[in-house]
Design a protein that fits this description.
Distance between the termini: 24 Å
Structural class: mainly alpha
Helix content: over 70%
Shape: rod-shaped
Number of domains: 1
């Protein structure tokens, strides 16, 4: 019974006040000790479990899969002069080829919007989890104060008041004093049971804290990877695709005016196909890493849900007490 010694100094007066309010002759006073906080924790545990169960990150994976499919639909080859040779030869690519790149660029922009929404959902989720973590901490602190108060009352009653009742029973063994001793011992046992129940409730908060943080960290990692794609890799890829399309249109205009050689010079000055290939591979690597994180997060979510269910089914009977 050292909970009181572990309390912050500013909360110790509160624990002493609660201890002074516990009436050992009143069954309801013991039964209701910490009842509201315990009920709040039970409801909070259900909320955490509900949040985990309904946390749908599969949409993020679906969006990333579409992004990867769109990127790989732009077939970039990187072989000497054959690289984009269909752009630089006299015949050049068909208008359908240019339209394909334009459609890919438009599709990427749509996926960008979906990723922005997914990232916002992740960031909102992180804030909710922050609130949950702080609330969980407050419940833990409240219970620590209440448990400390109960332990103080138990110790005081057992060491100071119970001996007086025992002395009275020895002095008058045929009167009501022995019954008062039995009643006092039963109340101590009830207080023991109540403290055990409150300790179980506090254990829920201890176990819930890392679960909340694990989900939050998973969201943060996903959000960071999406941020990298949105702010760095995708814009670079789009710019290079735009340059590819612009260069091809310039070549087509030059071809119409029969100035193919000078057009080729301008194209080579403005478009680096190798750079596009590298950017595309970098973007694919980013998406694959994010998909891996999303898959790991889904597995982790299922594991955390099982653990939270186990936590909420802790035993409620104290091993100290007998029926």
């Amino acid at each position: 019974m050292n909970t009181f010694a572990l309390l912050p100094e500013q909360t110790k007066p509160h624990a002493l006040r609660i201890a002074g309010e516990i009436n050992m002759s009143d069954y309801e006073s013991i039964l209701t000790l910490g009842h509201d906080t315990q009920r709040n924790i039970s409801q909070f545990s259900d909320r955490v479990l509900y949040h985990i169960k309904n946390r749908d990150i599969t949409k993020v994976g679906d969006t990333l899969q579409r992004l990867m499919q769109t990127i790989t639909s732009v077939n970039v080859e990187e072989n000497d002069t054959n690289l984009f040779s269909r752009f630089f030869k006299k015949k050049g690519p068909s208008p359908e080829s240019v339209m394909h790149y334009e459609r890919a660029s438009i599709q990427i922009e749509r996926i960008e919007l979906q990723l922005h929404r997914a990232q916002k959902q992740l960031l909102d989720d992180i804030e909710v989890l922050n609130d949950m973590f702080r609330l969980n901490q407050s419940y833990h602190d409240e219970l620590s104060v209440i448990i400390a108060a109960g332990e103080l009352k138990h110790q005081d009653f057992e060491t100071r008041e119970l001996p007086l009742l025992l002395e009275a029973a020895e002095a008058d063994p045929t009167g009501l004093a022995p019954q008062r001793v039995d009643d006092a011992k039963n109340q101590l046992a009830r207080l023991n049971q109540r403290l055990y129940d409150l300790q179980i409730a506090r254990e829920l908060t201890v176990q819930a804290a890392p679960q909340i943080r694990m989900i939050q960290q998973s969201n943060q990692l996903l959000s960071e990877k999406i941020q990298t794609s949105l702010m760095t890799t995708i814009p670079l890829w789009k710019n290079q695709i735009a340059l590819l399309i612009s260069s091809e249109r310039e070549r087509q205009r030059a071809d119409l005016h029969r100035r193919m050689s000078s057009a080729e010079d301008r194209i080579n000055a403005h478009f680096d196909a190798t750079e596009l290939k590298q950017t595309q591979q970098r973007l694919l690597d980013d998406v694959e890493e994010t998909l891996l994180l999303q898959g790991q997060s889904s597995v982790q979510q299922a594991q955390i849900e099982r653990e939270m269910r186990n936590l909420t089914s802790f035993p409620k009977k104290s091993p100290i007490l007998k029926e």
